[in-house]
């Protein structure tokens, strides 16, 4: 067996507009670069090669917790040393913790000759998400591992459905403000009007049909969220202006990435995605909010191996 | 222009389990047989050739109201005589009124050399639904006109999305009890828990993906309704027993058709659909409830023309 491997683990967008808690997708960039090697001593060692100062104690590190979950499923004691260089800024709302957790278990599985199924890897990586947010959710983990668009049809029991999608360009703006996931959760209403729920699942159905039938217009029409966005977007300064400017620039649609603060927009071609980035800049520069923009694509693959 | 035409207009299932208010499909049987001819006198004449005693005054007859809506969209005054022989029992919950309204406008459109688009025909036929139930809804009209599975992504503005589906066999049992649509509407909670809504739209997404990818297992797993069925099924004696017996007989899943009282089940093959019918009979015979069973298929086409 090979005894070391390098992987690139992608950023992901969860809570895709109408698909709150069920739809996510992988991005081509940014990504974490992670190097895993087997060690003679059992257990997990984490080495951070970036400046984010994340915990290195394995039980408190998302990649560490994911690796420990995987090790518990093995009959033999094994040791891993994981070097992590995060390209995805923690707290940005584009699946930073999921990327590290997913990258770790995919890398380990390669060293174990692909002993585990993708679904088992998702289960292991969810322990990493638990460390990050207190909830063992798969919204970002699934697209990070499967790539492309994924549906979590059911969280319990876990039922992941990969969805074919046409080429899509993605513009993400990360305003440098903090939205705590706990706040974003607390602000949600626990009861919603039935008529809004019906409108939402009509849009979810339309979005899935649009993706599978490569119908960009239908994708655009279906990118409407009448339940979560109206509430959560108030936590993100400039949200309405960013959305309006992006649509005017030709975006198909978009919304809050994960629980924010990043905002993503989908476009049919790269020129439009660049124009959307320009429009986003035009909103945040005058506001004096620091921000970072990624112009990238939907990635049909998840965690990739360095050649 | 031809001056008369005969059409067969199909029964339809609306509110397909998790797809409440958005998903419907057409059945190969039963159907209404309708004969339309142009008359020299402007206006609409309705002649019932069955024994249901439905109103013949055009404004109070669903086919009549649909034809009047279509006539209002024409510059020239025209006259139609519509003979209707209903094969779909009124009040059964399988789109009896929609079939008459849809059949009428499709027939008229043929006599007008297909002047109107399918979506315009849906709009006209919705005036028939208004006569029947007080609401101008398209849940049954859309599959009756388009055939196959249809998604009403949005009712306002109307956005109909035809969905490809694999071959499906359908068993429908119509217990001869009355469920008034108004009662079925009143019993629904107007607020639903967010977590149930999320589970529902995960299932809607799974059902659409299962249909478009011809994944029968996914279709089966997604046929779960945590919002409407738990409430409305109490209006239908024997519902839980029918469902349990149908699943034991091999059905993929199913639920209330429309607002009831009919119950439908989907199966992969005809033998299973027949076994499901047998299982349904085994529930209702001992209960002493009169019932009628249809073993049929999903129809890829809607209103058909007699050759």
TrEMBL record, chains A, B:
Keyword entries, A-Z: Amino-acid biosynthesis, ATP-binding, Cytoplasm, Kinase, Nucleotide-binding, Threonine biosynthesis, Transferase
Metabolic or biological pathway: Amino-acid biosynthesis; L-threonine biosynthesis; L-threonine from L-aspartate: step 4/5
E.C. number: 2.7.1.39
Keyword Transferase: yes
Domain GHMP kinase C-terminal positions: 208-284
UniProt domain GHMP kinase N-terminal: residue ranges: 63-148
Enzyme class: transferase
SUPFAM superfamilies: GHMP Kinase, C-terminal domain (SSF55060), Ribosomal protein S5 domain 2-like (SSF54211)
InterPro entries: GHMP_kinase_C_dom, GHMP_kinase_C_sf, GHMP_kinase_N_dom, Homoserine_kinase, Ribosomal_Su5_D2-typ_SF, Ribsml_uS5_D2-typ_fold_subgr
Origin: domain of life: Bacteria
Major site of localization recorded for this protein: cytoplasm
Signal peptide: none
PANTHER family membership: HOMOSERINE KINASE, HOMOSERINE/4-DIPHOSPHOCYTIDYL-2-C-METHYL-D-ERYTHRITOL KINASE
Family to which the UniProt record says this protein belongs: Belongs to the GHMP kinase family. Homoserine kinase subfamily.
Protein name per Swiss-Prot or TrEMBL: Homoserine kinase
């Amino acid at each position: 067996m090979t005894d070391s491997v390098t992987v690139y683990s992608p950023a992901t967008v969860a809570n895709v507009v109408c698909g709150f808690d069920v739809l996510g997708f992988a991005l081509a960039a940014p990504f974490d670069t992670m190097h895993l090697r087997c060690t003679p001593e059992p257990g997990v060692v984490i080495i951070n090669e970036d400046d984010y100062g994340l915990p290195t104690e394995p039980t408190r590190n998302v990649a560490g917790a994911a690796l420990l979950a995987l090790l518990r499923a093995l009959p033999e004691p094994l040791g891993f040393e994981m070097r992590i260089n995060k390209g995805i800024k923690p707290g940005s709302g584009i699946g930073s913790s999921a990327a590290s957790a997913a990258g770790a278990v995919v890398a380990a599985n390669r060293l174990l000759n692909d002993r585990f199924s993708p679904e088992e890897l998702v289960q292991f990586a969810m322990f990493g998400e638990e460390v990050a947010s207190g909830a063992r959710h798969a919204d970002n983990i699934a697209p990070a591992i499967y790539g492309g668009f994924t549906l979590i049809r059911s969280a319990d029991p876990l039922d992941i459905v990969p969805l074919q999608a046409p080429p899509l360009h993605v513009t993400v703006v990360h305003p440098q403000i903090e939205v705590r996931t706990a706040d974003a959760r607390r602000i949600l209403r626990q009861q919603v009007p039935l008529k809004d729920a019906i409108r939402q699942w009509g849009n979810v159905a339309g979005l899935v049909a649009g993706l599978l039938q490569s119908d960009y217009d239908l994708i655009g029409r279906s990118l409407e969220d009448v339940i979560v966005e109206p509430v959560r977007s108030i936590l993100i300064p400039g949200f309405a202006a960013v959305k309006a400017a992006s649509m005017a620039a030709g975006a198909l649609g978009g919304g809050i990435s994960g629980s924010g603060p990043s905002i993503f927009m989908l476009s049919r071609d790269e020129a439009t995605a660049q124009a959307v980035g320009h429009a986003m800049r035009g909103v945040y520069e005058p506001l004096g909010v620091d921000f970072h923009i990624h112009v990238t694509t939907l990635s049909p693959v998840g965690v990739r191996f360095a050649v």
